[in-house]
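HUMAN: Spend a minute on the protein record below and explain its fold to me.
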Amino acid sequence: MVVYAGQGDARRSLSLLWRAPGAEPAPRTGRSGPKPGLSVDAIVSAGIAVADSEGMAALSMRAVGERLGRTAMALYTYVPGKAELLDLMHDRALAELPSEFDGSGDWRAAVTAWAEALHACYLRHPWVLQVSQARPVLGPAELAAMEALLRALQPAELPPRRLRGAVGALWQFVRGMAGVAAEARDAAAATGVADADWWTARSAQLAELAPDFAERFPLLTALESGGDPDPQERDREGFRSGLAVLLDGIARS
C-alpha cells in the first residue's frame, strides 16, 4: 500500500504543518465550559496511535474520532481531512529524531547515529514507510531530518553533486532496510508461521529437492554459512555492514 503525501489543500496543510498564525482554531466554549482534549496536536497523536496499532489501512477520520471519543465531524474544524492529517502524522513521527548528531568531529560516527535513529523511528512507526517519497510532506521535522544529515556530512567536504548522491543513497538505504525489517516482524502475525519455523521448513525442503544446492550456488552457500541463524540479528548485522560499505564509498568520493 503506497500513500502519496500532499494530496490535501496545500495552503491549509502547510499552514498546519508550520503552525502559521490562525491555522488552528481557538478552543470552543460550550455551556459547560471549554471542551477538553481536542486540538490539532491531540488529533495527530490519535491518528498516529491508530496507525501504529492497526496499520495505515485502518486510518480514517472516523477511527481517529472514536479514539478521542468524538465524531469524525468534530475533527474537521481542526484538520480538513485525512490527507492533511497524514501529512501532519508523517511530520510528527519524524519530529522524534534528534536535531543534532554529535560525532565529536567524526562525520562517520555522526552519520551512523543519524541512520540508526531514523531506522528506529521507522520501526516504531512502520506505516511511515508507506508514505511515498516521490512528493515530500515539506514539514519542519522532515526538513530538519534532512538538515541534520547534511550537518553530519559537512566535515566530509563533499562537492554538491556527490553530496546529493550521498544523501539520497543514505536515506533510501535506511528506508529500504527498515522496510524489510518491518515486513519480517509482521510476517509471523500475518501468516501464522514464525520466521524460524518458516526457514527450517524451507531449508529441509531445499535439501531434499536440491541436494546439489551447494555445488550449484557455491558463493551463496559460503555467504550464508557464516551468517547468524537469528533472522533479526542477521537483519541488524546487514544494516550495520551495509551502512559501513556506504560510508566507505562516501569517504572515497
